[in-house]
Amino acid sequence: MAASEAQHNDRSNLSEDTASLDVAELFAFADNARDSGDYDTAETAYRALATNPELELRTEARFRLALMLEQQKRPTDAAVLLRQILDEKPDAARVRLELARMLALMGDLSGAARELRQAQATGLPSEVARLVNIYTSALRSQKPFGASVEIALAPDSNINRATESTTLDTIIAQFDLSEDAQAKSGIGLSLKGQAYARAGIDKRSSLLVRLSADGDLYQEGQFNDISLGLQAGPEMRSGKDRIRPSAGYSYRWYGGTPYADTISAAINIQHPMGNRAQMSFNGSIGYSNNRRNDLQDGETFAAALSYERALSAKAGASLTISGIRQSLKDPGYSTASGAISALVYREFGKTTLVGLLGYGHLEADERLFLFPRRRTDNRYNGSISGTFRQFSYKGFAPLLRVSYERSKSTVELYDYSRVASEIGITRAF
Q1: If I label 323, which of 22, 69, 300, 404 is the partner at 20 to 30 A Cα–Cα?
Q2: What fold characterizes domain 2-138?
Q3: pLDDT classification of 426: cutoffs 50, 70, 90
């Protein structure tokens, strides 16, 4: 009780001391407290200044506080303040560069690179442009370990991506489908998480290990879909390019029982294209062991090429072209597919909206024995999501995502439509 009363009295005394100060004096008071190592007092004063109705004054207070928090090894708290400044002043290039540096310190290298591209999209003053190389180097000052998580409530009109038809045409007869084989709606819990560790090998490379988990959980446990994956490999730099070869293993459960496990090898290459754009290539080869159907065992080859460009300090876009080849034991299950998708993001004050449109085409090598036609799919998908930083708390913010998926197939089992949404929390950066 005595300690609590003392802390209360300290805050009361501080409020009384600062109440009589004008803005200039309060800035000086905060700076002196910071310079003398009294960080708690300095933070209280800066946060008081950050509520000032004058935009420039609260911007300066947040900026000074962010730099102080970074000195205290609190880059996440610093990044929150810098993002608050950019919500009100999206063209503040120096602030965006500092945010890029904070994200790099947090281990979010892709987010840091995106902020740098957006900063340069508006054109940098000469006194700021020289800092770009410094902050680009900060991207190489990589965090040795870290983790992220996303939790969402997920209403879904078709949790098993199944047909709405009650019957299935075959070369033998028309069969009635059980309820479990038909489209099921439900509300699930979507969980996504990732943890990584990084150890230096030499000045230009390090060893990166990633553990990822993805789960969709429903009241009806037969539709639960859970995956775990582990990847490891060197992370290297060649000029401005970043190259990440890796080997991996993943395991998937469906309905509470083993579904498939996969061993794989992959490579990721990121290549800057000027100050505002980046090209990325992902390629992989894997072998899957399907625990429920040996005819679906086999190799998978995948490749994707993406181009991302900052359109302004508040917006950007990307285009991705991808292809997948599955060579499985049964030619009826073997498929070749290609897809193209476009993504656009735009900041509106403290809200970031992301829109996605995609199209994919898939063809099977041969007709499966029971079905009258060879499988050919045309898939269309779209989504819009919003992250609302005005409600952020400790680096997390509410997320709302709505998506639509339509698969038109010559085989009824793969012909479906789906509307899904996610309401949850995610990191704000």
Answers
A1: 404
A2: 1.25.40
A3: confident
How many angstroms separate the CA atoms of 152 and 399, rounded?
8
Which three-class secondary structure state does DSSP give residue 134? helix
* Percentage above 90 pLDDT, the chain: 43
- Classify residue 370 by its DSSP letter: T
Structure tokens at 321: 């072209």
- What CA–CA distance (Å, rounded) separates 299 from 389? 43
Using CB atoms within 10 Å of the CB of residue 186, give its burial: 0 to 12 exposed, 13 to 18 middle, 19+ buried.
Answer: middle
Q: Where are the domains of the chain?
A: 2-138, 145-427
Separation of alpha carbons 402 and 387, rounded Å: 12
Beta carbons within 8 Å of 53's beta carbon, 6+ residues apart: none
What does the DSSP 8-state code read for residue 149?
A: E
pLDDT digits (tens, 9 = 90+) for 57-82: 999 999 999 999 988 888 888 888 99
Percent of the chain at pLDDT > 70 equals 85
Q: What three-state secondary structure class fits 203? A: coil
Amino acid (1-letter code) at residue 281: F
Query: What CATH code would you report for 145-427?
Result: 2.40.160.40
pLDDT exceeds cutoff 90 at 389: no
For residue 215, the cross-strand partners are 191, 226
In the three-class reduction of DSSP (H, G, I as helix; E, B as strand; rest coil), residue 131 is classed as helix
23, 121, 305 from 242: Cα distances, Å: 46, 22, 15
Mean pLDDT of 276-284: 92
Beta bridge partners, 253, equal 226, 258
324: left (phi over 0), alpha (psi -120 to 50) or beta: beta
Q: Mean pLDDT over all residues of the chain?
A: 84
Task: Write the burial class of residue 304 (CB in 10 Å: 0-12 exposed, 13-18 middle, 19+ buried).
Answer: middle
Give the list of residues 6+ apart from residue 304 with CB closer than 8 angstroms, or none.
281, 282, 283, 320, 321, 322, 323
pLDDT for the residue 131? 54
* DSSP-assigned letter for residue 177: P
At position 222, the amino acid (one-letter code) is Q
Structure tokens at 204: 């230009």
Instruction: Please report the pLDDT score of residue 285 as a whole number.
Output: 97
Q: How far, in Å, CA of 42 to CA of 26, rounded?
A: 10
Q: How far is CA 124 from CA 100, 131, 241, 310, in A?
A: 15, 10, 23, 14
Helices (H) and strands (E) in the chain, counts: 9, 16
